[in-house]
Amino acid sequence: MFYISPLGRNWGPTVNWDGLGKIYAALAISWTVILYSGIAWLVAHRQLPYLKMRNIPLAVAATSFLHVYLVKIMLAYTTNGHFLCSAEFWIMSIYLPFGIALFQANQVQLLSISTQQRKLLDGERISIREPYRPQRNLWSTWRSFTSLKQTYVFIGIGMLLQVSHIQYFWRS
Known about the structure:
Helices cover 71% and strands 0% of the residues. By secondary structure, it is an all-alpha fold. It is flat, with a radius of gyration of 22 Å.
């Protein structure tokens, strides 16, 4: 049986290394080992046809960002308030949105591949390489991008805005 104080954390000088803290730490360590064993398998077998179509580095980056956030949340009880508030703010404001953004980019990439496969099944021709057309301005360059590249640009702009937003509030 675990005792959780109704007053919350005691913010004392020691870490919470009671039964609940040990369970949280064990879960974080176990999940990290399982997750990165799976990632190691994906990287080792990236030449398999069903893995070639996926963007493994993007998936690993998204998963890693979200995993750092999860571990910090799981160990918040154990650290007993010793983690700097500014570091918690950075993890919450950067790692979670970046993980979600990169995960979304990975899903859009898979959508693009499935759309191309659907076009092949329907008998449409798709070109692997687009012919070189010199671009005159930014708008024509934007129009020449595939929807996948346009989505990547929007996600990248969103990530840059997130960092600049954090930088702005960090200085204030």
